[in-house]
Each structure stands twice: as C-alpha cells, then as structure tokens.
Design brief:
Oligomer: single chain
Distance between the termini: 16 Å
Number of domains: 2
Strand order of the largest sheet: 3-4-8-5-7-6
Helix content: 40-55%
Shape: elongated
Strand content: 15-25%
Amino acid sequence: MKRKLISQMRNEWRSNVWMSVELIIVGVVLYVIFGLFATFAYIHRPPKGIDFTDVYVGRIGWVQKSSTSFKQYTDSLHDYYTDLEMLKANLSSNPYVESVGTGRNAIPYNYNYSGTMLSLIDQDSTVTYYANHRTMDPGMVKTLRITGLNGESPEELAKTVEEGKLLISTIDAYEDFKAEKWAQHEAYFGNDSANVYTIGGVINGFRRVDYEPMYGGVLVMNIPHGEFPYEIAVRVTPGKANEFLESLDESYLEFGNVYVSDLVSIENRKEEAHRQFTTMMRNLSACTLFLMIAVFLGILGSFWYRTQQRIPEIALRKVNGATDRNILCRFLAEGLMLLLICAPVMALIIATVLPQFNLDERLATPSWLVWSMLPVTLIALALMIIAGIAFPAFKAMKTNPAEALKDQ
C-alpha cells in the first residue's frame, strides 16, 4: 500500500482481471433484470375508468338440446335468450346485488384477444384503428362502472351502447393517436363500408392483464343479435360479499336451460391471470439476490487475502501517520476503481445488444426507462463492493503496528 493506487492495482492485475470479468458479467445480467423490473413497474398501472371492486364473474352455460336434462320449450316465444333474461332478473332481485351484466370477451384478466380492425371515417381521410373487441350489454357497462374520458357516467355510456353506438378507447402505445377526436364520427369494421356505426364516446382503455402493454385500443359494442353471451358479471353491495355468496342457490344460478358456473371474485381471476408474472418476478428477485451475494463474496474473499498480504504495509502507513479513514478509503478506492473501469465495457455490451431486442417498442415503454437502469446497476454493484471491502478493511484498521512490524 506504499505504492500509488494505480501501481498497486497493476501489481494485483491477475486477480483484478478475474474480478473485472465477474463484475461485467454480473452487471450485464443485473441490468437486464433491473430493466425487466422497471418495465413491469411502468406497465403495471391500475386501469382507469373502470372499477372491479365487489364484482363477481362467472361463465354462462346452456344445456344442449341433445341432453337428457334439456327442458323442452312449449312455444316459439321461449328459448335460451328468454331463459337468460329470467336468470339475470332473478340475480338482480337478490338483496345483495346492485347490477348484473353479460358479454363476450367483456371482462379483463383473460388472454382471449378478439382483435378487430375499425376504419374511422373523417372528412378527408380514413384511419385504421386496431382494438380488442369486447361485446357487452348495457348492464355490463354499469357493472364494471366504465366511465368516459370526458367524465361520462356508466349510466350514460350504457345508454350509448344500448343505442347501438360504439365506444373506443385511448391507446397507451400511440400517444399521437387522439381518440377523443373521433367521438360522434362514423366507422365501419375492416373493409365493410356498408355496415356503418357511430362512435358514441371515448373511454380509458383496459388491458387483458395489468402487466401487458396496451398495443391497441378497446372497442365496446352491444352484443349483436344472434350472439349468445358466455360471461356474466355481478356487482355486489359493498361489504356484503359473504352474505351474497351464502344466499346463492339454484334459483339464482339457473333458469330453464341456462345456468351460471364458476362464479368467483374478479380479484381471484386477476390473481390467477397474474400468476405467471408474479412467479417470474419472484424468480428474478431470487436470481438478483444470488448475483449480489456472489459479487459480495467474490470481493470479500479477494480483499481478505489482499489485506493479509499487506499487513506490514498497513502497519507502516499507520506508523507514518495514516488514519483508519485513510486505510478504509484506500481499499474502497481500489474496489470502486475496478467498477469504474468495468462500467464503459458494460455500457458498450448493453448498447450493442439492447437495440437488437427493441424493448421500448415491444413493451411500449420509453427508451430512457430501460437506460436508466444502468446507473441503478452500477450503484447496486458499488454497494456490494463497499460491503465486501468493509469487513477486511475494518480488520486491517485494528492492526497493531508494533506487532505487525516486529518480524520485519
């Protein structure tokens, strides 16, 4: 330690090379993991303009005519649709139910995309709008409490849907697209210009899951005639979930040849849909912890050995007036200098590899977010280096110069 810092590091070049390789590899891997954490944190935002609190969802089923359980209809006025309306009326009569709605791909937290293309008609041009197609009756709009971008209430939007008008949403991935511009404009599906609809309002979009970018918009329309809904949602009076579940019996869950199954809280459905993401985040967290410990132990072992080799030098410096703080700073400077040398190499590797994946486009996140994880990674490595050096350095500070130099 009596030599200059650079000379000291040059003298330890073999172990420094191996530590540098370790820091670069671990740093790049940590950068990727931190980038994923930051991306999912950025994407994971509660949906706006929709309220899932106290909502229970289930599947609508119907008994096949070939089944022995099928109940024959006595006249042409009754069919599956009338059975469904009666079932909804029975559920609505439950004292703990506020509203009931049905739909097809209406409820989030499932991976059925149902993508569609809408042509928005302007006086001068036609704009193509890609969206997740969700069909629902007015009751579903009120049950999910969908609100408009300009403050329209669920009741107002439900009336809009009942009139046969469309609702479109904003798009996260395309900030230049101004959905509100198209309110009260006409539109048609794909290239079918003969089937024209009116866009009745604009809503905040909601995604399939909270960890997924919203690449397209959301298109809400009333259930077309002839399509039978397969989803049902029930909004329960706040704080009455247990009473609601206890009150359910066959009279509420089935009528004629139509029945409801798998009725669960939408929070349960959300948890199930997010399971793969939460599992991945947990595994990445464990991997991060392992890598940080590896850096800590590597630095600790290397500097423990160096400390033992340098005890006479440390004692000589203390005899010449060096303080404990001087000795600590010397060791820390050596470790942080290694990190400083490795940082440009890490940045070069990241700059070379990262653009190949186009993460900012694929995940609809700003490019600055991913790059901001580089200083975070360097800070994390610096903390592990400081922690790994601190213990050997503190032990070196306790060196008794007389004891260390008596054999010299």
